[in-house]
């Protein structure tokens, strides 16, 4: 996330056209506010990415849509309700792996030709490893206690997307907006300065106003635009849990979670002239982002067995306090023909290093479960609701910097989070049917959009199916999860509303096949 403790690595650029050729090691707040490719705003994207979580790491709880908060002993559900640790009557070791398949459909919509593209990818993931140590009895009314430790994968960022189409407008419009009113020495190294060095913009005039071939020679021309986006990574949470069982009526648990973040983003944008007489021939702009970090959180939960057939569950999750580092760089190529032959320029930006902190929202859950028995059949039904206020997420850009610009940027970005994100409720419902050693499961989850304006994104219900075989000492569970979301994306953001900005409608669907193996002792 830009805007804090920014250091420029040794790069490959020389800046012969600038009055001041010395590379800056600390950049201004104006650059910090707009380094990244935009979407809805990088700060919001980061906040949502770091604030969300998925509870589909074990096949049993995944098979019922993640609705397991009142049921108890399952390692995947410990990250959701720590009281699950107190539900164990013996030791257990489990491991889970998954095959993840994502399909992204993107449509570029504008004044030109509308084109539609699909991109899919498949990848194996290591989702869970857990170990439970049980002790009993621990007292006359305390029936048992358990310690648990292991890892659950709580977020998956993998996605590939590609779109193309013909619309008016050019990325150079953004480079102009980033440069107007500035001396050459003041142009940033990632957008405006890079565009100037490769010839995508030129000038300035006496009023420090820059020009581009597109605006000067063909502002109404269609350009063929395309972009490929490759997102990778996720969040793996190491957890340490303690839980106990009081009189087989009240179960409680406490967790310490240590999530590890690994995220990379590669974007490659291209626009080409359709008119052979156009001076602008081709522009290519690439962006590279790598984010890594670690956090810590605390969770507590309880399960109350109200009767033989009904249970209540509740849990709280503290904010996760992250310390994060970003590495960012860009590359640009521009080709043009002024009538005397094709010319081109290409430059790579220096690398930028950012260090900052982020705290995610508090999260609260409530659960209601019922256990049933019908002849040789038995099982359970569970209903969960989860509350999280995404508008309370906070960046801290001053933790590693005393720069006034970083403090101002922190204030502005957190204000955007408060204004543009909101509290959301997620509902989950699932059921398990057992016949002897065989288990069958199904579930549904209804997530809510974190955006204050509902037209910015549209979530799709998550559907799950599961099955399992559970013996006296070993078990194997399977699950299938189908998730989806719809949202809007723009490769660049313009301030001037009279200019044409491309907009991409995106639908992402993810399928996950999960298997968990375990043994009891």
- Counting helices, strands and paired strands, the structural category is mainly beta
Reported by name, the CATH topology is Porin
CATH homologous superfamily caption: Outer membrane protein transport protein (OMPP1/FadL/TodX)
Query: Shape from CA axes?
Result: elongated
**Helix percentage range:** 10-25%
Order of SSEs: EHHHHEEEEHHEEHEEEEEEEEEEHEEEEE
Mean pLDDT level: 87
- Judging by the overall fold, what is the CATH architecture? Beta Barrel
Low-confidence stretches: 1-42
Number of helices: 8
Major β-sheet profile: 14 strands, antiparallel, barrel
Radius of gyration: 26 Å
Number of strands: 22
Through-space gap between termini: 46 Å
CATH class: Mainly Beta
Q: Give the number of domains.
A: 1
In terms of DSSP E residues, the strand content is: over 45%
Strand order of the largest sheet: 2-3-4-8-9-10-11-15-16-18-19-20-21-22
Oligomeric nature of the chains: single chain
Structure in a nutshell:
With 521 residues, the protein is mostly beta strands. The protein is 12% helix and 54% strand. It has one domain: Outer membrane protein transport protein (OMPP1/FadL/TodX) (Porin), CATH 2.40.160.
Detailed description of the structure:
The chain is mainly β and 521 residues long. It has a single domain, classed as Beta Barrel (Porin). 12% of the residues lie in helices and 54% in strands. The protein has helices at residues 29-32, 42-51, 59-63, 75-78, 172-179, 192-198, 213-217, 404-420; strands at 7-8, 92-109, 115-135, 142-156, 159-168, 201-202, 211-212, 222-246, 250-273, 280-305, 310-317, 321-337, 342-348, 352-359, 363-374, 377-389, 394-396, 423-435, 438-446, 457-470, 474-489, 503-520. Strand 20 (457-470) and strand 21 form a beta hairpin. The radius of gyration is 26 Å and the shape is elongated. The relative contact order is 0.19. Mean pLDDT is 87; it is low at 1-42.
């Amino acid at each position: 996330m830009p805007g804090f403790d920014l250091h420029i690595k040794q790069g490959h650029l020389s800046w012969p056209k600038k009055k001041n050729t010395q590379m800056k090691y600390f950049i201004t707040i104006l650059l910090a506010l707009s380094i990244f490719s935009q979407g809805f705003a990088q700060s919001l994207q980061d906040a949502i990415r770091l604030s969300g979580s998925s509870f589909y790491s074990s096949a049993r709880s995944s098979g019922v849509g993640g609705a397991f908060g009142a049921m108890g002993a399952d390692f995947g559900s410990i990250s959701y309700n720590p009281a699950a640790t107190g539900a164990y009557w013996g030791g257990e070791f489990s491991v889970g792996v998954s095959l993840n398949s994502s399909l992204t459909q993107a449509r570029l919509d504008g004044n030109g030709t509308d084109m539609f593209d699909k991109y899919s990818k498949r990848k194996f993931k290591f989702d869970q490893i857990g170990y439970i140590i049980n002790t009993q009895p621990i007292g006359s009314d305390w029936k048992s206690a358990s310690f648990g430790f292991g890892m659950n994968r709580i977020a998956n960022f993998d996605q590939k997307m590609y779109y193309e189409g013909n619309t008016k407008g050019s990325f150079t419009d953004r480079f102009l907006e980033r440069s107007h009113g500035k001396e050459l020495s003041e142009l940033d190294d990632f957008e405006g300065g890079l565009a100037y060095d490769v010839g995508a913009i030129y000038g300035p005039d006496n009023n420090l106003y820059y020009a581009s071939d597109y605006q000067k020679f063909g502002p109404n021309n269609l350009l063929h635009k395309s972009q490929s986006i490759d997102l990778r990574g996720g969040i793996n949470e190491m957890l340490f849990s303690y839980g106990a069982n009081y009189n087989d009526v009240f179960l409680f648990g406490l967790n310490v979670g240590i999530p590890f973040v690994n995220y990379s983003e590669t974007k490659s944008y291209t626009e080409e002239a359709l008119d052979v007489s156009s001076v602008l021939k081709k522009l290519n702009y690439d962006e590279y982002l790598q984010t890594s970090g670690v956090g810590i959180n605390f969770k507590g939960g309880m399960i109350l067995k109200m009767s033989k057939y009904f249970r209540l569950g509740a849990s709280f999750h503290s904010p996760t306090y992250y310390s994060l580092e970003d590495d960012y760089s860009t590359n640009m190529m521009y080709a043009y023909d002024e009538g005397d032959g094709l010319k081109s320029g290409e430059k790579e930006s220096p690398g930028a290093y950012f260090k900052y902190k982020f705290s995610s929202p508090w999260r609260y859950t409530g659960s209601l479960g019922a256990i049933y028995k019908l002849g040789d059949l038995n099982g359970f039904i569970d209903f969960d609701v989860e509350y999280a206020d995404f508008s309370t997420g906070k960046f801290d850009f001053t933790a590693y910097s005393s720069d006034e610009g970083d403090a101002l940027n922190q204030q502005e970005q957190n204000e955007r989070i408060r204004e543009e994100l909101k509290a959301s409720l997620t509902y989950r419902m699932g059921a398990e049917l057992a016949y002897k050693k065989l288990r069958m499961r199904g579930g549904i989850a209804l997530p809510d959009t974190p955006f204050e304006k509902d037209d910015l994104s549209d979530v799709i219900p998550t559907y799950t199916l599961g099955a399992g075989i559970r013996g006296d000492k070993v078990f194997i569970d399977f699950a299938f999860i189908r998730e989806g979301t719809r949202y809007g994306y723009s490769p660049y953001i313009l301030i001037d509303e009279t200019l044409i900005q491309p907009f991409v409608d995106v639908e992402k669907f993810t399928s996950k096949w999960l298997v968990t193996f375990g043994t009891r002792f």
